[in-house]
Design a protein that fits this description.
4-stranded parallel sheet, 10 helices, alpha/beta
Length: about 250
Amino acid sequence: MIQTAKPLAAIYIRVSTQDQAQHGFSLDAQEESLVNYAKALGYEIIKIYRDEGKSAKNLNRPEMQQLLKDAEERKFQAIFIYKLDRFSRSLKDLILTIDKLKEWGIDFVSLQDKIETASASGKLMFQIIGAFAEFERNIIGDRTKFGMERKAKEGGFITKAPRGYKLLNKQLLVDSEEATKVKYLFEEFLNSNISLTQLAKKHGMTTSGLIKLLKNTTYLGKVKFANNETEGQHEPIIDKQLFEQVQGKLK
């Protein structure tokens, strides 16, 4: 008779000093319960990860980090924990981590919370968690995009002010003397028959540098971030009509 190898399981246990004192949680008690439960379900225990005296406010715990690294490398097929708050007290961390385990094909079992992924109800729970994880990622993405767009508007992504402006405390301020020269460049290009190369040479610029200047929408009071343009908080140097006429001639 051919015997099939048992699926491998990891056990994660955690206790903080406060938990031990107030609730009587102990690593040994958690370990014993989880080992018996995992074996009853037909798993072979490959490793027990123990974080002692560690808070669950985030996932920055030595054994937790090693557990997740080993999970990504598929060293086992399931993770057993005693209770969800042993894993993490952060709902966001919990949801996103369980969703990542699902992606890696790792089953997740919480003894006290009756959560597992082998049964139909357990799979449904994983699907619900996955939906919350997607929602959380979208919220994070929207929040990040909003913050970066706000930062762009305030000049946060600008490390060097374009000609005609000066950068002061991450804010673009008009440099009156240089702004006059920029406006003159736009008007001279539009109203004369001088070539771009001749105009650039006349003003001590390269042709590509001049083209870049003439196409720069910063002079309209706009900021560009991730190929999207929004209204900035700085004062424009060039009016829209002049800018559009110059773009027409450039084409």
